[in-house]
Amino acid sequence: MGGSGVTTELVVHEILHAMVAWIIDQAEKGHGSPEVLAAVADLEALRKELKPLLEAEHSEAVSTLQEFVAWGMTNPAFQKAMAAVPMVEKGFAALKNKAQQFFRAISTIVFGVRGPAMETALSIFMARVSVIVGEAETTQVSQAPGTHRMAAH
């Protein structure tokens, strides 16, 4: 963006932080729907599992859960690294929200029918993040400290 050092990736990264930070923070304190609490707990467990594998090249991305989510949703190199890590789904609750169903449908179209061996850290990550993003779309964030709603003109 005009030599300022501000890139589209950076802007989207920061918007994503603004969108989900409060929900993740509340879930880490035990507040939120059972689906969000499970998704946040699973994401933290995934981050900890991936940290030794990816820290050398992506230390900032695996430093905290907030950064893990933001980098995982915005940085193609980090996404590629997660996609290279095969994983088996560990029994996350049945897909209950539309965002998760949408992600599964798109991934099936793009990657074809997949068995458990075809799951990757990225697909597991995306399924969990979709729960948080879905919650962010339906939650009033005006109560969150430091957030402001823009008036529609």
Terminal CA distance reads 26 Å
Q: For the residues shown, what is the average pLDDT?
A: 79
Structural class designation: mainly alpha
Poorly predicted runs of 5 or more residues: 141-153
Number of helices in the DSSP assignment: 6
Got a strand count? 0
Main pleated sheet = none
Q: What is the chain-wise order of helices and strands?
A: HHHHHH
Q: What radius of gyration results from the CA coordinates?
A: 16 Å
Helix content: 55-70%
Strand percentage: under 5%
**Overall form:** globular
Secondary structure elements and their pairing?
Blueprint: H1 8-28, H2 34-58, H3 65-74, H4 76-83, H5 98-111, H6 121-138
Question: How would you describe the overall organization of this protein?
Answer:
The protein has 153 residues and is an all-alpha fold. The protein is 63% helix and 0% strand. The protein has six helices and no strands. The chain has helices spanning 8-28, 34-58, 65-74, 76-83, 98-111, 121-138. The radius of gyration is 16 Å and the shape is globular. The model is unreliable at 141-153 (pLDDT under 50).
